[in-house]
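lol so apparently i was supposed to do this last week
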Amino acid sequence: ERLIDKIAAGEVVERPASAVKELVENALDAGARAIDVTAEAGGTALIRVADDGHGIRTGELELAVQRHCTSKLLDAAGLSAILTMGFRGEALPSIGAVARLSVVSRHADGDAASITVEGGRVGPVEPAARAIGTTVEVRDLFFATPARLKFLKSDRSESSAVSDTVKRLALSAPHVAFTLTLNGRRQEFPAGSPRQRARDVLGAEFADEAIDLDIERHGVRLIGHLGLPTSGRASSQYTYAFVNNRVVRDKLIAQAMRAGYQDVMARDRHPVAVMWITLDPALVDVNVHPAKADVRFQDANAVRGLIVTAIRRALAEAPA
Ligand code: ADP
Ligand code: MG
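anyway here it is w/ adenosine-5'-diphosphate bound
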């Protein structure tokens, strides 16, 4: 297939976990209330994401797997106020370029249909059976790009990246029910409050000791649960941040969270915290990188200051 498709694909889909992220974001964009994720062999053998969202009309299935076809970008003005997570129309074609992709979908307006893309080759649209919603299946990821396959880590570490990705996405949308079946082991995250989701994802130990945070200043709202960094966890990163319900791995936010913790944290400890940031979408730019993991705030200093102050205050006021 076209080299350019494969190069572009590598930007969006670095590893199985990035494919999982794109597919779950599509399900969230489709208004799903329940999302089931299945992965096998670290996601290289199989990734399946099934949702009960609005589905894709049969007449639009072919478009959905074509590059730069998105149903989500209505006009240029929409660019500065993007509420949906995907908007580049790159995920499905990118995955189809390097794997065996199948999409089965049913829109409320009609019957179910399916389409496949294998190593960039698009198959015919065929009738299928399904309730309203969409199932995307990815088999043999990177079979069409063996070089990329060689760069993957062990099944175990790819599995753990998939698990981390789903957990972050589950935290980002507590009102959506998730299941994750990883190598046959099933975990459930029932729909609930942010607090309940934090408990389900990060554990009762975290939730019981966590300090709640809920403040709003200059139109920026922060909701968070702050764990005390005393549990001595090994990993370098246990901070979870969401901007307008979007998963972000943003330096500014991560640094602000660490700075907020600085006074109470020994050198070898790491903060464990989850924070939902909500603000006017026009004041934040998410169109930065294909992976869409970082964000640019119009007033970065204000956001940073708010996070640092809020965390410091909450930790200082917390009962010892
Ligand atoms: P983007 O999300 O950037 O629009 P994608 O390649 O991820 O691009 O998806 C292409 C299009 O396929 C989307 O714009 C949407 O119309 C449709 N689509 C993909 N996944 C789903 C889904 N789970 N439910 C409904 N529509 C979907
Ligand atoms: Mg998308």
